Amino acid sequence: MSFEQCRPLITGSSRGIGRAFIDAFLEAGAPKIYAGVRNEGAAATVAAIDPRVHPIIVDTTKPDEVARAARDASDVTVLVNNAGVLHYAGFLSAPDLDQARHEMEVNYFGPLAMARAFAPALARSQGTIVNILSIAALVYMPLVGTYNASKAAARSMTQGLRVDLADIGVGVMAVYAGGYDTEMHLESTDKALLNPPSVLTGAVLDALAKGGVDELFPDAAARGLGQRLGLIAAD
Ligand SMILES: NC(=O)c1ccc[n+]([C@@H]2O[C@H](COP(=O)([O-])OP(=O)(O)OC[C@H]3O[C@@H](n4cnc5c(N)ncnc54)[C@H](OP(=O)(O)O)[C@@H]3O)[C@@H](O)[C@H]2O)c1
Description:
Number of domains: 1
Largest sheet: 7 strands, parallel
CATH architecture: 3-Layer(aba) Sandwich
Low-confidence stretches: none
Bound molecules: NADP nicotinamide-adenine-dinucleotide phosphate
Order of helices and strands: EHEHEHEHEHEHEH
Number of strands: 7
Strand order of the largest sheet: 3-2-1-4-5-6-7
CATH class: Alpha Beta
Helix content: 40-55%
Distance between the termini: 25 Å
Strand content: 5-15%
CATH superfamily: NAD(P)-binding Rossmann-like Domain
Mean pLDDT: 97
Shape: globular
């Protein structure tokens, strides 16, 4: 893929990895970047980054906002389903099911709703969906059990969409992210264990440029796990 005609939409681009995607696509020369945010304040902030950045207000759990985004960004060529939440909830330790439901809403139903709404536009552009998953989709981590389940559901959805959309020429990439230095982590997390978000965004843009990449392990921890699970070849 050449980035000269690339018009990505990134959900959850107010901060963290999503914000880093804006910078990466700008640097790569994309002429128009749809920056998905959830309120007018964040829209003004991302609009000020560069004239090529077009804010789109979209909470991915709100069907009316998803439909409006699909109408307003009908020339999109890459949909980056990045928005996500992590509640640090265990299956049994959480007081009720509210956090588990919220993680499913944002991490599974949100990307599914966006993929359904944007499939016609992506078919027209022969574009790509990039789903930001996690190594938590692949193995159980006790402190974040309900998050694991939501990302595992999103992985299954990603694999299914890849089959369903192949006939109309839309690619679907799964990104199994390790640890990245964003507000998603607790204050107590050892930052030395985390990668800058640019490691992930750089790997995704390299994969888009190469084309045909279905499964991406963007950092050393992710590649190590992928190799141990036999999902990718050893170096
Ligand atoms: N950081 C990591 O180590 C790591 C590792 C593996 C995977 N990931 C995945 O990477 C993605 C980005 O994470 P991050 O670390 O950048 O997290 P973050 O810093 O907490 O940012 C999360 C982003 O998602 C947005 N968001 C939350 N709920 C939303 C909704 N309902 N609709 C639309 N946007 C919503 C937030 O918007 P507001 O600013 O409006 O709240 C924010 O822009 C997530 O899918 C996460 O699961 C992260």
